[in-house]
Amino acid sequence: MPAPRPYFLDLRRIRLPVGAWVSILHRASGAALALALPGLCYLWMLSLRSPVDYAAVTAWLAGAPGRLCWLAAAWAALHHLLAGLRHLGLDLGLGAGRAPARLTARLVLAAALGLAGLVAVAGLA
Questions:
Q1: For residue 95, what is the enclosing H or E element?
Q2: Which of 91, 83, 73 is nearest to 107 (CA)?
Q3: DSSP assignment, residue 94?
Q4: What is the pLDDT, as a whole number, of residue 27?
Q5: C-alpha distances in Å from residue 64, one per residue of 1, 37, 109, 124, 125
Q6: What is the end-to-end Cα distance of the chain in Å, rounded?
Q7: 103: Cβ–Cβ under 8 A, 6 or more apart, which residues?
Q8: What angle do the packed helices 51-62 and 18-49 form, to 10 degrees?
Q9: Is the separation of the CB atoms in 79 and 110 below 8 Å?
Q10: Nearest to residue 39, comparing CAs of 82, 76, 85?
């Protein structure tokens, strides 16, 4: 009998549950926040160095790239906070059933996007 061939796992066809997406995005948002920290510290340092540098930093933050970075950082912080609270609740046994876990996962995704949208709208005003 020939040796069994390795099973090919097509990752594009796997449909992950919503809880898995929240968990993956929780890790990704934490990594994004950690990687963005040196850049944010550098911008803060520049803004404190001189009035000219402060004007340059505020001009960059008022432009499209700065607003996009601000929106991404706001989403990452909000999602990481909300998903972390969800994971803490699951560790304590709150909402560990299938239906409540799916509901809280959907709520985390919607709340993070909604609150990040509010941050974006407030930033445009």
A1: none
A2: 83
A3: T
A4: 98
A5: 63, 20, 25, 11, 14
A6: 71
A7: 95
A8: 150
A9: no
A10: 76
Q: What is the pLDDT along the chain (125 residues), one digit of tens a residue?
A: 777 877 777 878 888 999 999 999 999 999 999 999 999 999 999 999 999 999 999 999 999 999 999 899 999 999 999 999 999 999 999 999 999 999 999 999 999 999 999 998 887 66
Domains of the chain: 34-124 (1.20.1300.10)
CB 87 within 8 A of CB 27: no
Q: Residue 121 is encoded by which pair of tokens?
A: 């709208």
Q: What DSSP designation does 84 have? A: H
